[in-house]
Structure formats: structure tokens, C-alpha cells
Amino acid sequence: MVVAAAAVLWAAPAPAQDRLAAVQARGELRACIWPDYFAISYRNPRNGELEGIDIDLARDFARRLGVSLAFVETTFRDFMDRLEQGSCDVAMFGVGITPQRAARVEFSQPYLSSVVYAVTTRDNRIIARWEDIDQPGNTVAVAAGTFMEPLMRGTLRHATLDVVAAPRTREAELQAGRVDVFMSDFPYTRRMMLMHDWMRIVAPPGRFGETRYAYAVAKGDPGWLAAVNGFVEAIRADGTLARAAERHGLSPIVMR
Q: How far, in Å, CA of 156 to CA of 135, rounded?
């Protein structure tokens, strides 16, 4: 019986890390971002500065916690590894809630929601309507690791899917004529339209691909998830979320 008890004790999982206490003891919040996400977490090439709704809100979260802030640059493909490894405490860059991601990370309350849009060139005569996209001979690009990848993989029946990973970009592939269209969301497409007059947006029928965006943390720490949820509730209640969304042109997709 003693041996059996010892075996049970040996097999018991280690207690979850108290991330909130670790952040406060360290005096620093480490927030994962993707610096290519227009209006969300974007490094402006003109001045090298980070900007976007989640850049503002990450700074506000750190301020409310009474700690400094460090941004950890990652991608949609790699951010879950970063969270699990502990190299960042929270992913704050408009992470779409999907079943595949929810199997590995915990999500906060959602704060934004967007459908999926198509982006093509103004002079493209092949794709005029949404129905023109999934046709033989067309190539549709998505960014690797985004929720658009499994969405379009399960949607397309005739067109070819091109999963674009760095250092390639969807814009460069479209301009070069290697793809006919790429898929993205409200923040990315609206900001791109402001910057590039050669682009044209094709809106979807209904609410195609509508996805809620949230912050993500590693599994196994309900106290830290509660702290992140408390922040989302606070910024919604005191107007911080609405003001940040207005600054970055995202008011239409804020979840009230």
C-alpha cells in the first residue's frame, strides 16, 4: 500500500504556475504580438514605432497591473508555443477564437468580431463578385497560422489555396500576380485600403467566416485568466476599449 501511495504522489501533476504573481514579482508584463497586423499590433515602417488597438491596450493593462511592459514578437503560427513555453504571459493581438486554438490555450472574453473579406487588385477582371473566387484556375492566399487557413481549406472546392508564410506576404504575392485574391479581416483590409490605392475589397455574403477575437493565455492558471478577463470587463465598462477602437478605425467591430 505504501508503494502504491508513493506511485500516486509521484504521478501527481505539478501545480499550475501563478502567472499573476510571477508578473508582479518580475515587475514586467510580457505581451505577445504580431507586428504585421494593421490597426491591431503594427510596426509602422516609416518610424519603426508600434501602433494599434492592442498596443494601446497592452500598455493600459500593464499600467493597471503596476508593472512595465515588454512586447514579444511572434506569429499566429507560433504564439501558442510561446505561451506554453512561458516566454510571454498573454497574447494581445486580436487572436481569433477557434476550436483548434481553444484545445491548446485559454481565451478571454471576446472584444472584437469580424467577418472575412477578399482583397484583389483594382484592375482584376476575373474576380468581380464573391462568387467569382472559388473557380478553377484561381489561387486564393491566406496567411499561415491565421484562422483563415482552416476556414478556406474547408470552403474552397475549385480554387487553389496558397498558404503564405514569412518572408512572403499576401500583398506581394497579389501584386506579382501569383495569387488572384487574398483573405483577411476588417482591421487588415480597412487599413490596407488607406495605404494602397491599387487594392479592391470584395465583401462576403452574409456573415461569412465571422470570428470573435480575444486575448489568449496558457492553460492551467484560472487566476491569471480571471485577471485578463477582469481587464477586458474594465476597459469595456470605462470606455477605454471604445476609445481605443475609435482611434484605430475599429469601432464597427467592437463587441459591446
A: 9
